[in-house]
Amino acid sequence: MNKSFTGILSDYVLIHVKGEAGQSGSTLRSYYTAIDQYTEWYTRTHKTKPEAMDASSFAKDDVRAFLNHLEDDNGVSSFQYYLSMEKNHHFTGRKFKARDWMNKYFTQEDRAFVNADISAVPEIARLLRQIPEKYKHRALFFFLLYKYTDFDLDQPFQEQYEKNNQKLIASLKAMVP
Predict the structure, then answer these.
(1) Which of 45, 57, 119, 145 is deepest in the core (most CB within 10 A)?
(2) Is the backbone of residue 59 left (phi > 0), alpha (psi -120 to 50) or beta?
(3) What are phi and psi of 71, to 5 degrees?
(4) Are 125 and 55 in contact (CB under 8 A)?
(5) How far apart are CA 110 and CA 1, in angstroms?
(6) Do residues 55 and 128 lie in contact, with contact meaning Cβ atoms separated by under 8 Å?
């Protein structure tokens, strides 16, 4: 069975976020809503089908354009989410600006992570576009492995994340003809 990238991403959210991270149903619905909204926006603006999307469809410029699309002329977000009250850092009210929430709750380590993640995207996206179709599932495996699971929880996160990005890039380069 061949699944689209967004289908695989949705499966990953279900398995990892619910099963391993123990997140609530409201959190899962928010993630699914975000994936669906991004997929709908991306396919409409790029005149493509969801099945054609891959990890390179989540490039920094596309994500930024999507976030800008979510805000109307008054700066009010149209992004829909499911309110969860189980933790005090969750959103309150029906509308929010993602950047305001990030400025309030992101630590210095969070900002370093986001910067490292964003800076690696162009190279990873470039490599993913060059990988032959027969290796795409393998590339997705490495992407999910190094981005989300290959961590020692007793060690500092940021250093591991940067090394994992290097391992991911090396793995993808090995698949490029």
Answers:
(1) 57
(2) beta
(3) -100, 135
(4) yes
(5) 37
(6) yes
Which regions of the chain are under pLDDT 50? 1, 73-75, 79-85, 94
167 burial type by CB count under 10 A (0-12 exposed, 13-18 middle, 19+ buried): middle
Q: What is the pLDDT of residues 26-49, one digit of tens each?
A: 666 777 777 888 888 899 999 998
**Token output for 75:** 């700066």
- The tokens describing 95, both together, are 């509308």
C-beta of residue 131 within 8 angstroms of C-beta of residue 168? no
Predicted confidence (pLDDT) per residue in 151-175, tens digit: 888 888 889 989 999 999 999 999 9
Instruction: Please give the span between the terminal C-alpha atoms of the chain, in angstroms, as a whole number.
Output: 26
Alpha-carbon distances of 70 from 60, 65, 74, 102, 127, rounded to whole Å: 15, 9, 11, 16, 29
- Could you give the CA distance from residue 27 to residue 84 in angstroms, rounded to a whole number? 7
- CA of 176: how far to CAs of 59, 142, 171, in Å? 19, 14, 9
CB 4 within 8 A of CB 50: yes
